[in-house]
Amino acid sequence: MGNRGMAWALKVEDFSYSYPGNGEAILRSLSFTVNRGECVCITGSSGAGKSTLLLAIQGLLKGGHCNGRITIDANGWKKPVGLLFQNVDSQILCSTVEEEAAFGPDAIGFTGEETAAQAHHALQSVGLAGFEKRNVDRLSAGEKQRVALAAVLSSRPAVVLLDEPTSQLDEQGKADLVQIIHELKRQGHALLIADHEPGVFHGVVDRLFQLEKGCLRERSFGFFHGSGSYAPGPGGADSSKPASSAEPALEMDGIVWTEPNGKVVLDCLSLRIGRGEFVYLYGENGAGKSSLLRLMVGLESPQAGSIRTAGITAPKPEQLVGNVGLLFQNPQKQLFEDSVFSEAAFTLRMLKYGEREVMPRVNGALALCEVERFAERSPFTLSYGEQHRVALASVIAANPEVLLLDEPFAGLDFPQRRRMLTILSRLQRNGTTIILASHGPLPAGEWVNRHIILKNGKISEG
């Protein structure tokens, strides 16, 4: 599956892998090469094994059973391979942006001058010049993804592995990433990308494969034409959205919120959402969407203004348990139980529901989110997209009055995104107020009652 006559940097030969305790191989006899100066993209549904393949190439799979061979020819580069993880929080080690970008080259023996130059160039290439002294923990998910990418690139690995690199990026971020890939190819790096959205890379990818049932099949971009649509399928959005109530589910008036460094994120923002509304909140990376949701549930406090959520003024998180649910941007930050069932049952048990009521509620939530088959599995053994659906099930099992979702599409392929929208549409029909925040515009507006846009600290109607 390689281009003959070109020097390969990565060779995978008849490679198979199965996870511990699972006799069925998730990867089956894969063979392909990636040449220097070439970009190969692998797409496939959530849970197909794309991340597993990249982890295998990076040498990070522990246990399980594997056959075949993976070979990397560094060809003089100091670092053979670098991997951008799907969940970038799991690979960020340092406090500041500058320290994170410099960590890799310093660790592999670059001089202090070389390290500083590589870190500066990498941050500039990902659009983070001027962010050097910023605290990584205060950045948005999209900004963190850029930091992690800079940290990978600063070490100049021979083979660059990118796992869902567009999942947290807005449209400008995606365009910037394509330009970065063009430049890396020109410099002679080999690139292997795993992504649900291969169309983003049309024009820079040399070969495209689909991973399906453990096997690779070479595809053209035309094969996926029309598959990336949010348009409702049968049983999807109701053609007539339920009307919202005149009674508000959420009121924010004159909200001012600044970061510890003094940056104003929300500037005299006001917002009113009626009970039963489905609202789509759009904003670019760093616009303040996550901060706005955290303010709604009392995880942050504004410097000025008033907030009333689900009838509670200046709410604290403990006052909203069971009535307001928040799906975090990174699902791993709210998963902690030993099994998927226990995860979904946690809030109900905390509210002292009896097990006879917990069982049907949890089973219903798991079925609605299509994760019931994982009920006895640890949530930490699942793919990122599967974890997102488990986290959603844990939030909706208590039947909250208000549901807030922070980037819920991350890690989900397009069919799963449509299914999630279908789930949310059903919840709205039952009276749930829904606010969905995303860095990507929603093309099919029939799913929601309102589009609102967060830009320059203020809300406008879309």
Please tell me about this protein's structure.
With 462 residues, the chain is of the alpha/beta class. It folds into two domains: 8-224, 3-Layer(aba) Sandwich (Rossmann fold); 248-461, P-loop containing nucleotide triphosphate hydrolases (Rossmann fold, 3-Layer(aba) Sandwich), CATH 3.40.50.300. The protein is 28% helix and 26% strand. The protein has eleven helices and 19 strands. The chain has helices at 50-58, 97-107, 112-125, 141-153, 171-187, 289-296, 317-320, 340-350, 355-368, 384-396, 414-429, and strands spanning 8-18, 27-35, 39-43, 65-72, 79-84, 157-163, 190-194, 207-212, 215-219, 248-258, 264-274, 278-282, 304-309, 312-313, 324-327, 402-406, 433-438, 450-455, 458-461. It has a six-stranded mixed β-sheet, sandwiched between helices. Strand 10 (248-258) and strand 11 form a beta hairpin. Helix 2 (97-107) packs across helix 3 (112-125), helix 2 packs parallel to helix 4 and helix 8 (340-350) packs parallel to helix 10 (384-396). It is globular and about 65 Å long. The protein starts with 7 loop residues before the first strand and ends with a strand. GO terms for molecular function: ATP binding; ATP hydrolysis activity; ATPase-coupled transmembrane transporter activity. One of its GO terms (cellular component) is ATP-binding cassette (ABC) transporter complex. Residues 10-238, 250-462 form the ABC transporter domain.
